[in-house]
Design brief:
mainly beta, Jelly Rolls, 2 domains, 1 helix
């Protein structure tokens, strides 16, 4: 098994097909004009200013913004990286730009922010991962695949197969249970990471509205 699948910044169209995965998904790069299909939610990181048509309205998304598009949508005139979770209905969200570092502690001094959090426990999420200079992450795995994009900085992803250089614009897929770690020297890394599932989020029994309602 390849533990790290890189995709250069000049590629376009479908990069990796995960429709047979436990969490059916597709990873692609949209340039120019793209139609995003229905019966799915599209988690988009905008690379170049893009006109987004969704639900009868148009939205201009600047570079560095991120979107959640639950259903059929059209992207025109720009570019963006799209992680599509099939057969899932999320919420319509436009956000950004991302911050320099994350707000939550992560392993080995790294930080993370939930850019698009799970709507309900178990749902997909989009994250900003910040890896400081001089970091040598502990080798680890994830129980589901990850798609990602190097937003800024430089470093390496170290796997049993070798060391994979990381630079801005490089996209990647890490399969489920694949051993890997991120390493940096003189530059910090910022990574946009999509998770197709989570073990976190509100439930019908526990969410802010009901938790803070006193009967």
């Amino acid at each position: 098994m390849n533990n790290f699948l890189p995709f250069s910044a000049d590629l376009t169209g479908l990069l990796h097909d995960l429709t047979d995965d436990a969490f059916p998904s597709r990873f692609s790069r949209c340039t120019g004009s793209c139609t995003l299909p229905g019966d799915a939610t599209h988690f988009v990181f905008v690379e170049k200013e893009t006109l987004v048509s969704f639900d009868g309205r148009e939205h201009r998304a600047s570079a560095g913004m991120y979107l959640s598009l639950p259903g059929k949508a059209q992207m025109q005139g720009g570019a963006g990286w799209v992680s599509t979770r099939l057969h899932y209905q999320g919420m319509f969200i436009l956000g950004g730009p991302v911050e320099e570092t994350g707000r939550l502690h992560y392993i080995d001094g790294c930080t993370d922010s939930l850019l698009i959090p799970p709507v309900i426990l178990g749902d997909p999420c989009l994250n900003l991962l910040h890896i400081p200079t001089g970091t040598e992450q502990t080798r680890h795995t994830h129980p589901s695949f990850r798609t990602g994009l190097i937003l800024s900085g430089s470093g390496e992803c170290v796997t049993p197969e070798g060391r994979h250089p990381l630079e801005p614009g490089l996209a990647f897929v890490i399969p489920a249970d694949a051993a890997h770690s991120f390493h940096t020297t003189n530059e910090a890394l910022r990574v946009i990471a999509f998770h197709p599932d989570s073990d976190y989020g509100p439930t019908h029994e526990a969410h802010p509205m009901i938790n803070r309602t006193i009967l």
